[in-house]
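WARN no homologs supplied; continuing
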Amino acid sequence: MGPPDLPPLLLVLLDCWVSVSAQAGATLAVTMEGLDSAEPAPTTPRPALSPRPPGTPRAPGPSSPRPTPVTDVAALCSCDLSPAQCDINCCCDPDCSSVDFSVFSSCSIPVVTGDSQFCSQKAAIYSLNFTANPPQRVFKIVDQINPSIFCIHITNYKPALSFVNPEVPDENNFDKLMKTFGGFSLNAEAAVSFTDKSGAPNAPKYEYGVVLQTADSFLRFPSPLGSSLCTDNNPAAFLVNQAVRCTRRINLEQCEDTEALGMAYYSSPQILRVPITVQSVIVQSLNKTLTRLEGADVWKQALVDTGAVRICTHVVLEVKYSLTYTGAGEITKADLALLLGTVSDAAIPLQQKFEIHFIQQNTKPVPLSGNPGYVVGLPLAAGFQPRKGSGIIQTGNRYGQFTILRSTAEQDCLAAEGIRAPVLFGYNMQSGCKLRLTRTVTCPLVVEKVKRLLKGQGFPDYVAPFGNSRAQDVLDWVPVRLVTQASHVKGSCQLPVALVIEVKWTKYGSLLNPQAKIVNVTAHLTSSSLPETSPGSERTVLISTAVTFVDVSAPAEAGFRARPTINAKLPFNFFFPFV
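OK structure emitted
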């Protein structure tokens, strides 16, 4: 008992404060001791704060056991971002070896703990010992005690440790959910199930650039990283189309044991419960003849001795993945096409080709105007940029992306409004109509009407350089330069009368198969002064549009290798004794 002049409630608070202060002091000692030793330091369990009548002394009762940790701090690692790869300066990454730790400069996350609101919990401490040769990682587990009096001592409500998966309304459970929630308010007496439904088959959803997960790891897409050699640990990302070539150094005697040369290495993984279906298998012989194999057999590479040379058959030369996905980011189908071949010692190092592309479900492929260069007679791909930094917006009708005025039999501009003709690559076109004006028509109204007639409803700002240019590659698109030409007659109405579009293109690429590439697009809008008409008379104005394609390709020059130079130096006494 304390002094009689202190109230009982104050005595209880003082008693709690003394207990908490003692616990805090013990915590510091335990932490320092744990840092100097590799074994966890023993601690005294903290007694539970049980309610008792005011003024009664605290009875030294037995301490209650600590709650079992839900997660193991030794297995937690928030800096482990790359699957099956070691992250730099991530000392808790299980994929890192002792060789990786020896080149770390520091530990990005030195202390890993669970929930900081618990009164007592484990903490994993990571550090680097730079005095060792080579440097080593130091890993310790210590007990940490929270000095706050507002901490969680026992977690006896297990459903609060995890989130409940919400039930999405559909045609099967709609009536049940209406009874449960009764309109827009939650029914307090409804039985809410906290059953763990992790075993239910939930459909996986992907976002752009997310690594495609398989049953055990991720979908491997071999690619050249840093050199031309194939790196098998490169992951395939969602909606990232790739087509690469890389070389592989192999030992022909061990071709049967090399997994990357076998068909099963690329057809066996499952992309989150979606099996890979082999659509076609083509075999290429030594003389480059192709033969399609029928059936669903998995061919294994085999080493064959032909007497003169040894060859390895059914080696994977090309791999093509075709993944079908929904608008919600769910992969529904995975197809695979393989090209197998026969490899001899003369074909080493081996060159392999890998492709992966994604197709949205229930959509038709967008037709292109060329791949990559433009094809004569196909429409120009064009669009506009709504704001700076955004992609190119194109209309769904590719024949309406870049158009000119279309001539009609009546030659009436007012009747021809809205009738357009697409600009086709390589076709020089010219069209026109007649516009009849009276004195009652005002100049601003006629100018605006004729401009809309010449340029159309949506005049593009950019034109694609190639027939297969992507809308997100804005910097590659060619801007349309609009040049206005007007006469210098003062006091007259400047009426646009002609729109001439000049498209400059060049031959790009190899001389054996050059591709057409657009390099410049200029639209010349010519205006003419319109003299005033006499009262009661009409004036007819000719309105015309034209498209001209100009080949600006530079003449091809034959290139030859430079003659080798002989850098020969004679010894200083070569001409001795004559010189």
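The two ends are 119 Å apart (CA to CA).
OK
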